[in-house]
TrEMBL record:
PROSITE patterns: CYTOSOL_AP. One of its GO terms (cellular component) is cytoplasm. GO terms for molecular function: manganese ion binding; metalloaminopeptidase activity. The keyword Protease applies. SUPFAM superfamilies: Zn-dependent exopeptidases. This is Leucyl aminopeptidase. It comes from the Bacteria. Residues 307-314 form the Cytosol aminopeptidase domain.
């Protein structure tokens, strides 16, 4: 399969999307209808029927659209047929009234993603002619950005360390003519990024801050900050093996902001984009930062370390402080930050935090329109004392383990004062069980909704 729509319709096979029990609505010859009836195809979701011609070649196909209640349990459900149908080019011939062509066509494209870096690529699968009324170029850009995020997450840390993450953003900058700067190793101390340095200094590959800028300098400033912990052992508070197995995905926040940055630049949105990624590995060595240490931050706030496995908020804090100094109109932070968020909402529904009700309303609306679910959670003020340890300004891992997603968000908010609007997204970055348009593995989460927000906010 491919992440582009087919353009040659000369051999395209007609594809009929059929609600359950509505096969009579499909324009078929008597012979074809007899064939469909013989196969017992009813239009149930997840089923399809191939109709042959006199030579046994496929001349049309019917795919099930099911019932409203069945469709309510999923999204991009049409995409499942991209992997079920035989190789060929398909053209949607007719659809039910509630068929969102943009959503379903994008889902078809996203189904073309396969992480095949270490295996022999399989042959291309079913291709789709872009449905009438859809913007093919736009959908292809979104699909590329979304699967770019997935591919970066799926790549193991052996090939996705801070050097490799830097190379990925540098390639993105080259593609779009963006400016790119790197602050690396001990230069982080000279440039006043002490917490990024502290978290990453024990690793074999030096920590760094990656900084991409693009767009008209007079345009509204939109800054994306993504957590780039390329692997997280937990540091001296070492994770157990079962918890370490998926830690290649701990740079999922950066991967998603990279994917979103691609969409913004490829669509040439009228903004001044900045992408900041603190790229580190949280490793164990003789110079690892320790429980009980007190770190100084770029903002001047001190942080008591009560768990070295709560490192993501530390590197993000320095990057957010830098972003905030520029007073962006919109500051968005994405991170695979807390297990508490997954306990609360599961892997498919990322929580987000913002104090801006207008921005929240836009995000909620965009999440529905883009079929990219997000759920607002509160910056709950009464929990502020939980992140104040007494011997430092902040505690990176409050005792007790309660409200972990909220206290982490409150921690990050302490480093943002000047942005016009700020939102933090605590994503999982992983699809544990394959679903239509979402293979098992690295996940894009929230970025299609955020693209919608940025377009509406700055149109």
């Amino acid at each position: 399969m491919t992440l582009k729509f087919a353009t040659d319709s000369s051999t395209a096979i007609d594809l009929h999307v059929v609600a359950k029990g509505a096969t009579d609505s499909v324009p078929l010859t008597k012979q074809q209808r007899n064939w469909v009836n013989a196969t017992t195809f009813t239009g149930a979701l997840g089923t399809h029927c191939l109709i042959p011609d006199e030579d046994g070649q496929i001349t049309a196909a019917l795919v099930g659209w099911g019932t409203g209640s069945a469709r309510a349990r999923g999204r991009m459900l049409f995409a499942q047929y991209a992997t079920q149908l035989p190789v060929g080019t398909y053209r949607i011939a007719n659809t039910p009234e509630d068929f969102d062509a943009d959503e379903q066509a994008l889902g078809w494209l996203l189904s073309g993603y396969k992480f095949d870096r270490y295996v022999k690529p399989k042959s291309q699968g079913a291709a789709l002619i872009c449905p009438d009324g859809c913007d093919a170029a736009r959908l292809e850009i979104i699909a590329h950005g979304a699967t770019l995020a997935q591919r970066l997450i799926d790549t193991p840390a052996s090939d996705m360390n801070p050097d490799d993450l830097e190379a990925a953003i540098r390639a993105l900058a080259d593609t779009h003519g963006a400016d790119f700067a790197v602050t690396k190793g001990d230069a982080l101390l000279d440039a006043n990024f002490p917490m990024i340095h502290a978290v990453g200094r024990a690793a074999a590959v030096a920590p760094r801050l990656l900084d991409l800028r693009w767009g008209d300098e007079d345009a509204p400033k939109v800054t994306l900050v993504g957590k780039g912990v390329c692997f997280d052992t937990g540091g001296l508070n070492l994770k157990p093996g079962a918890s370490m197995g998926l830690m290649k995905k701990d740079m999922g926040g950066s991967a998603n902001t990279i994917g979103l940055a691609h969409m913004i630049m490829a669509l040439n949105l009228p903004v001044r984009l900045r992408l900041l990624v603190p790229a580190v590995e949280n490793s164990v060595s003789g110079n690892s930062f320790r429980p009980g240490d007190i770190l100084h931050s770029r903002k001047g706030l001190t942080v008591e370390i009560n768990n070295t496995d709560a490192e993501g908020r530390l590197v993000l804090a320095d990057a957010l402080a830098l972003a905030d100094e520029e007073k962006p109109d919109l500051l968005l932070c994405m991170a695979t930050l807390t297990g508490a968020a997954r306990v609360a909402l599961g892997p498919d529904l990322p929580p987000y935090f913002t104090d801006d009700p207008a921005l929240a309303a836009m995000i909620d609306c965009a999440a529905i329109q883009a079929h990219d679910p997000l759920w607002r959670m509160p910056f709950w003020e009464p929990y502020e004392p939980m992140i104040e340890p007494g011997i430092a300004d902040l505690d990176n891992a409050p005792a007790g383990g309660m409200a972990g997603a909220i206290t982490a968000a409150l921690f990050l908010r302490r480093f943002v004062e000047n942005a016009g609007s700020f939102a933090h997204f605590d994503i999982f970055g992983w699809t544990p069980v394959a679903k239509p348009a979402r293979p098992k593995g690295g996940a894009n989460q929230g970025i299609r909704a955020l693209l919608n927000v940025i377009e509406r906010r700055y149109q």
